[in-house]
Amino acid sequence: MIKSGKIAVIGEKDSVLAFKAVGVDIFSPNGMFETNDLLRKIKDEYAVIFITEDLAEQISDTIDKLKARAYPAVIPIPVGANGNGFGLKGIKKDVEKAIGADILFGDD
Predict the structure, then answer these.
(1) Pairing state of beta strands 73-77 and 25-27?
(2) Using CA atoms, how far apart are residues 103 and 80, in angstroms rounded to an integer?
(3) Which of 57, 63, 41, 50 is nearest to 22 (CA)?
(4) Which of 62-71's residues contact partners 24+ apart within 8 Å by CB, and which partners?
């Protein structure tokens, strides 16, 4: 059962440590397999799970499966000033799926 309002952040320790200051649970797995196992383990404990784009891209199949569920919301976040765009691509895909058109980016 999801505990309402619980939020987690998954990413490299240096990238996510600041979230701990605001009461968010942080996790710093080593590599794709550990990240995948961690996400499967905590998916029923959190309403929202932020994950750094670099890790999210590596486990995109698992994240896509979780998007079929109401909870948790798994949201890729950029690391530093040079995000790889994976999070924005996912938002664009979700919006297009929901409404049938790209209203955010207007690519022709």
Answers:
(1) unpaired
(2) 26
(3) 50
(4) 62/36, 63/39, 63/90, 66/39, 67/94, 71/2, 71/46, 71/47
State the pTM of this model.
0.76
8 A C-beta contact, residue 75 and residue 9: no
Q: Which residue has the tokens 């979780």?
A: 66
Per-residue tokens: 107: 């690519």
Compute the distance between CA of residue 77 and CA of residue 46 in angstroms, rounded to an integer: 17
**Spatial distance between the Cα atoms of 95 and 104, rounded to a whole number of angstroms:** 8
- Contacts of 87-94 with C-beta under 8 Å, sequence gap 24+, read 87/53, 87/56, 90/56, 90/63, 94/67
Residue 77, beta-bridge partner list: 52
Q: Which two tokens stand for residue 42?
A: 């905590």
6-35, pLDDT tens digit by residue?
A: 889 999 888 888 889 888 999 999 989 999
